[in-house]
Amino acid sequence: MRKLLVSALVMMAPAAAHAAEAAAKVADGSSTFFAVTVVTAGFGLAVSTLCAAIGQGMLAGKAMEGIARQPEAAARIQTAMLLGLAFIESLVIYVLLIAFILLFANPFRTIFAG
Asked: Which of 56, 75, 82, 91 is paired with 113 by a 20 to 30 Å CA distance?
């Protein structure tokens, strides 16, 4: 799992460097604030999606292992698995909602954008 996280960060590094470089070139404070907001929203969504995918994979694997060990409990295990998957996915949807708020109705714009 550590290799997966490191490879994900290595793949995101050029995009983050490009966004930081573009933000440094812009002299206007509001444009810099918007660029930082876009990078923050994108990074938060990427990290939450990666963690949710890892969690969902582990949950499905353990559920299949449990069903293989006790086939008579398959219905209860499947119900618990689906409930867990819904909770994991809801966390990513909350991060998506926060990213949309930061991008389109940012409450911090008046404070930091000057």
From this structure: 91
Q: What is the pLDDT of residues 14-62, one digit of tens each?
A: 655 555 555 455 445 677 888 888 899 999 999 999 999 999 999 999 9
The length of the chain is 114
**pLDDT tens digits, residue range 64-86?**
999 999 999 999 999 999 999 99
18 part of a folded domain = no
Please state the separation of Cα 114 from the chain's center in Å: 29
- For residue 70, what are the contacts with CB-CB under 8 A and spacing of at least 6? 77
Quick check: pTM over 0.70?
no
Q: How far is CA 113 from CA 1, 11, 43, 49, 56, in A?
A: 38, 30, 20, 29, 38
- CATH classification at residue 78: 1.20.20.10
What is the domain extent for residue 99? 30-106
